[in-house]
Amino acid sequence: GDIDRAMRHALAAAAQTDAQQPVFILLANLHLKAGDHRAAATAFARAAGYGGDKTGFFLKNAVTLYKGIGATDELVRIGSGAMDANPDDADLVHTIIEAFIHTGRMALVKANLHRIDRSESRHFSLLINYHRLTGSCAAIYGELCARSAARSEDAGLKFVRYSLAREMCDMPSIRAFERIMTDPTSAESTALLCCEPALARRFWCDDEAMLALPDSDSIKRARQRASLGTPPRRDIAPAGRKLKIGYLSNDFKMHPVMVLFVDVLLQHDRQRYDITVFCYTDTAPAEKFQANWPEHVRDKVVRIAGLSDQKAADLIASHDIDILVDLKGYTLLDRLGIVNLSDAPVKATWLGFPGSMHGVDFDYAITDPIVTPDSSIPSFEEKLARLPETYQPNCWIDRPLPVPQDRQAWGLPEDRFVFASFNAIYKITPQAVIAWARVLDSVPNSIFWILCHGAEAQAGLLEAFAEAGIGAERIIFATRAAHDRHIDRLTLADLALDTFPYNGHTTTADLLWAGVPVVGWKGRSFASRVSASLLATQGLPELIAEGEDHFCRLAIELARDPVRLAALRQRINDNRLSLPLFDSQRFTRHLEAAYDEMAARSRQGLAPDHFDVAALPPRNGSFAQ
What we know:
Number of strands: 14
Strand content: 5-15%
Structural class: alpha/beta
Shape: globular
Strand order of the largest sheet: 3-2-1-4-5-6-7-14
Largest sheet: 8 strands, parallel
Mean pLDDT: 94
Distance between the termini: 62 Å
């Protein structure tokens, strides 16, 4: 039972030049007992290097452990050898090729395409992702549609098809999916809903009751939580001691969430709050992004990428974190198992995911009264901690001011009215295209400037507009640009049109920063109320549309009234650095007030409950001073 002593002997033996395989097997098991899964995986990989009939077993152990801690670079290094040693292990092949794709090793994916079982929906999904990322979706999309039609009982395969349809702007397939979902109780829709990630549902669904139905993420996390249980909570710090806040994410890199969040890290009151960043971002992008952070912020970054969920939860406990705030939610590469295993006195979800985190042990969701009015309460497992203006922080400190541009340089006509949409293409729904077409048809001298890259997606979008009566000559496609150049080009748009039901989030804030009016389309769910939240916070309630008819009418009226539109643009530019939307210090004070309320209830032994943070008095003048 003396693990430390055993470890010292095993490490000494492993350092010898004549060390043999059993030493590394022993070392791997000792690291497992100590909870160091990265070191255990490395030892298993070393053991495999000696060969023998257990090579495949050792490599599979290493892959499983690396996957569990998100150590994708290490997993990739042993991936091909692990597949060679386990040629019939479909789950292992899936894990490794998925890691190749996530890390951009497309040459390795191409070399191992023969291992993918095209009859298995998860494997076919990998094949689709490869073709999507290499720009060759058209070559496989037809096969996917045919297979999903022939194997109508395979809900996973059908969902892969409908998911890819959004990225290819295949509106007929998206409409077919939406028709299935008109009856969520049918066997077909139930099966598809259980295959669907939580975030994907928000791209098409505006019904809070349906959004609360089980999805692939909530099912997975609920099972984990039932299997492992949740630990009893530690006591929170007594009043008078600094409140310790821990932020958990792997997006501490150049990522849309960080474009919003970084100012909060800089603006926290260090006299009252002890802030720690628990970071499982890959090392290279993390170090590059965090290099410019002030030293007092960098010093509070704790890297947990190499730890198991339990070890990471234990480390968070060792820092006496009072409030653990997860910034990921159900988005790519989340580590929500850490949240479920954490004994932090208070746990909150915020920013990364627009909705309730069903299946995860959260106490609070940090929102605002517009994205989550009282009618949203029944659809949330968490209690709502509503900030007074908007739930979304918006950085200004390092955000460049827009530089005026020339339309010709960006391929835009000088003499046409330019409507624009720069939201991700998977947010574009048939309903949005129809509404946009109605607006374009009523403003004959207008064109639509839309972010859409990839020949297949562009062709699908042009087909959808043509069906709605809008010719290709009125559509101009934009491609990706560096963030500062993107902000600059936004100034060339006359009026931005929102997506529905998943509004612009960072995109809407970027447009307002660039001085461009945005017609927001407010719906009945968190994701479809975000633009309304941002516009209201910046004193622009007249740009919030309720329903498709109102959306179209408002956009048409603005396009036909250049004086009104010019006044709006001037107001947006004049108020950029005085109204609350980009006032990150004011936002952070509101956020800290929410943390204080959570802590106060915990100290009193009260269960979490809904509450609203009171707004600070309005500022006089510019916050940039």
